[in-house]
Amino acid sequence: MSTDKPLLTVEHLTMRFGGLVANNDVSFEARAGEITALIGPNGAGKTTLFNCVTGFYTPTVGRLTLRHPAGKEFLLERMPGYRIAQLAGVARTFQNIRLFGGMSVLENLIVAQHNKLMRASTFAIGGLLGFPSYRKAEHEAVELAKYWLERVRLTEFADWEAGNLPYGAQRRLEIARAMCTEPVLLCLDEPAAGLNPRESAELAEILTFIRDTPSPRGHRTGVLLIEHDMSVVMRISDHVVVLDYGRKISDGDPEHVKNDPAVIRAYLGEDEDEDLPPEVAADLHMPPTAGQKGA
Ligand SMILES: Nc1ncnc2c1ncn2[C@@H]1O[C@H](COP(=O)(O)OP(=O)(O)OP(=O)(O)O)[C@@H](O)[C@H]1O
């Protein structure tokens, strides 16, 4: 685990939509080489927080600092979304898959490297004339795409139209596409949604690989993960931040969070006789007689 300064520092983030406070004075840190999960009941403000980090929204109040390994700092709340992706090195996936369905799997990964290729082509001329620097960049882009295809086990589907892939494979392709931008921070919005248990286990393996393996450029990627599948969250997260009604109600390692009465109350509601949804109960604290997974 990293002991350096945090990769992302969120300070007093508040996001209001008219009278609705979707994020209310939220502060936390996320580190490179770690998976930080953002959990909480529906409507807790998780996606809104992601949208602030990735520049889709400008926070009403608050500071979002991203620190690169070489020390450069970016104040994300002051940057438009496309600059956050291009310059700050933040990549994201969405709750609803957003691939280029009519392009091949490989093409999706090359297009993700568009900025790098455009620079190498000196904005088209070098590419048209086949400058060596462009050919080198093109070769490297294909190699990086192949590297991530292999990691997400899609090499054999490289020529398939992305839209024809099975659902679980599309989810993995989205992650590979984000990783082809060589981000320092990867933001994943419910990557396990709709996956079966085998696919969820594969996803967990991919995310731990991303966390544990330096990128081909040599930096450690930090992962910010929104996920409702508690079995995935509790198994792979280093750090869990819990939101409820826009506020942070807990922050710590999975063991701390799953035993935190405030978290249990948020998921159970006031009536503690009510049953937790099985997928949540299995990984949050619950009476041993109900078959709690060993901590
Ligand atoms: N653009 C918007 N305009 C108005 N209200 C919004 C907007 N985006 C989100 N909200 C509201 O902010 C609150 C938090 O929503 P958000 O989508 O961030 O929650 P969430 O924790 O991601 O929920 P889920 O787990 O269901 O995806 C909700 O009450 C939602 O209706």
UniProtKB/TrEMBL annotation:
One cellular component GO annotation, for this chain's record?
A: plasma membrane
- DNA-binding keyword on record: no
What's a single GO BP term from this record? L-alanine transport
Q: Which residues form a coiled coil?
A: none
State the SMART domains in the record: AAA
Q: Where is this region: Disordered?
A: 270-295
Keyword vocabulary terms for this entry: Amino-acid transport, ATP-binding, Nucleotide-binding, Transport
UniProt protein name: ABC transporter ATP-binding protein
